[in-house]
């Protein structure tokens, strides 16, 4: 499209309002601008076309022949644009909320709660996109990302959902006869780690735990790690949010914990989330 052949859209908008109302003042009120601004827009259009578009008629105004032709085209064009926008908004309103999060957080924190949200808000559909990949909200079409970190991601809005207090957990049977007065007493026991969790490696190294010791075992996903620790195979480092149900049920016990500081799982969205996403955010915050 050659935009050089199209005049100012603001001018066309002002002209459409004048043509419909046959009044500068009524057009100005509708557009929430001054009458002088409306007149200036029309003069700009007339200069662009080199034609007179309106003229006085008694105490009001009338359209010239070129003005009538332009008014019909502009009204039709704006109506087509409006129809397209309304269709797009309608499609967006029907689109499920896409939630990106890690498989472990989806399985152990969100899924046990999500059924209540569906029951309370059957009109809001959700689509889970579990992945270890850091998604781009815009290009990946993601409405909400639940991310682990300190809550600072440029160009986004982040709100703390759940603290990422790290716990060392195990079964009561595994810890039977073993003491855990300090972390040092746990260093030589079997630890269970997820292969790709670099934060776990860093945590272990900072505390003098040999991440690659012979007795330690590694699993491709945190779900398998949790299955192994529930089976009593060793100790596991987990965020409290991921093992709350196990602790409450007594499946696992807390062996050691640390202050998480600002680390946590954050609800990350674009700066202005749409209405039904705000409903979900408020609900998740209350459910945390």
Automatic annotation (TrEMBL):
Keywords: DNA-binding, Transcription, Transcription regulation. It holds the Pfam family LysR_substrate. The keyword tRNA-binding does not apply. One of its GO terms (molecular function) is DNA-binding transcription factor activity. InterPro entries: LysR-type_TF_proteobact-type, LysR_HTH_N, LysR_subst-bd, WH-like_DNA-bd_sf, WH_DNA-bd_sf. The keyword Transcription applies. Transmembrane segments: none annotated. It comes from the Bacteria. Belongs to the LysR transcriptional regulatory family. This is LysR family transcriptional regulator. It comes from Denitrobaculum tricleocarpae.
């Amino acid at each position: 499209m050659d935009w050089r052949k199209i005049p100012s859209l603001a001018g066309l908008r002002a002209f459409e309002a004048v043509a419909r109302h046959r009044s500068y003042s009524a057009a100005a009120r509708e557009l929430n601008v001054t009458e002088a601004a409306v007149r200036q827009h029309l003069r700009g259009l007339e200069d662009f076309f080199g034609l007179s578009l309106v003229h006085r008629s008694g105490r009001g105004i009338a359209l010239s022949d070129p003005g009538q032709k332009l008014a019909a085209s502009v009204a039709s064009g704006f109506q087509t644009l409006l129809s397209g926008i309304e269709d797009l908004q309608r499609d967006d309103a029907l689109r499920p909320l896409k939630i990106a999060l890690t498989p472990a957080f989806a399985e152990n924190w969100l899924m046990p709660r999500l059924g209540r949200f569906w029951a309370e808000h059957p009109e809001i559909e959700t689509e889970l996109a579990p992945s270890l990949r850091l998604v781009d909200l815009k290009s990946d079409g993601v409405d909400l990302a639940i991310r682990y970190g300190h809550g600072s991601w440029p160009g986004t809005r982040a709100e703390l959902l759940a603290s990422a207090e790290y716990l060392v957990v195990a079964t009561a049977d595994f810890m039977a006869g073993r003491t855990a007065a300090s972390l040092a007493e746990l260093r030589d026991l079997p630890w269970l780690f997820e292969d790709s969790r670099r934060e776990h490696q860093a945590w272990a190294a900072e505390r003098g735990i040999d991440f690659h010791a012979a007795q330690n075992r590694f699993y491709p996903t945190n779900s398998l790690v949790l299955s192994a620790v529930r089976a009593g195979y060793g100790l596991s480092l987990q965020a409290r949010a991921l093992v709350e149900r196990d602790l409450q049920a007594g499946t696992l016990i807390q062996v050691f914990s640390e202050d998480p500081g600002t680390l946590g799982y954050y609800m990350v969205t674009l700066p202005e989330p749409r209405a039904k996403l705000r409903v979900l955010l408020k609900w998740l915050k209350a459910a945390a």
